[in-house]
Amino acid sequence: MEYIYIGDIVNTHGIKGEVRILSDFKFKSDVFKKGIKLYVGRFKDELIINSYRTHKMYDMVTFEGLNNINDVILYKGDKVYINRDDLKIDGYLNEDIIGLDAYVDDKKIGQVKYVMKSKAHEILVISDEEDKYLVPYIDEFVKSIDLKKKSIYINEIEGLINEN
User: Fold this and answer.
1) I want to staple 13 with a disulfide (CB 3.0 to 4.6 A). Which of 18, 67, 101, 148 is the partner?
2) Residues 6+ away with beta carbon under 8 Å from 119
3) d(Cα 12, Cα 21) in Å, to the nearest integer?
4) Are strands 142-146 and 45-55 parallel, antiparallel or unpaired?
5) Tens digits of per-residue pLDDT, 37-73?
6) How do 3-13 and 79-83 pair as beta strands?
7) What residues pair up with 38 in beta bridges, in sequence order?
């Protein structure tokens, strides 16, 4: 089982077992649904979502069988995960992209080190031994992704990659 981190339980809410999850997971709408299994804490306790709603910047969740604040208080501060096999998404997770070799016109420019968040969109941080490139993670810049070849292909855009 491969666990994907989706957020943190930051507090409880009310007395009926609702928790506040702080998450910036890209595919929230596919994860926070009634009946989906989440894995919580260090021991990855399997909990099934009973209800979901948003409140301010939080994802508010109740779990099946946990109907009291005393049942969920022990999860305060714990990390929340989902099983990779339970995800049915159309797209790539950031975990899939990190580590891929990046190419511009069949020339390797480096490897994706991590994905940065910005207000507008995500940014791929690509580097090799000498250079570091920041490439917006949008269709205009990313031509294609091939997970089998562990490669990501970047469109050649003047000024994006220095050609010294």
Assistant:
1) 18
2) none
3) 9
4) unpaired
5) 999 999 999 999 999 999 999 999 999 999 999 999 9
6) antiparallel
7) 47
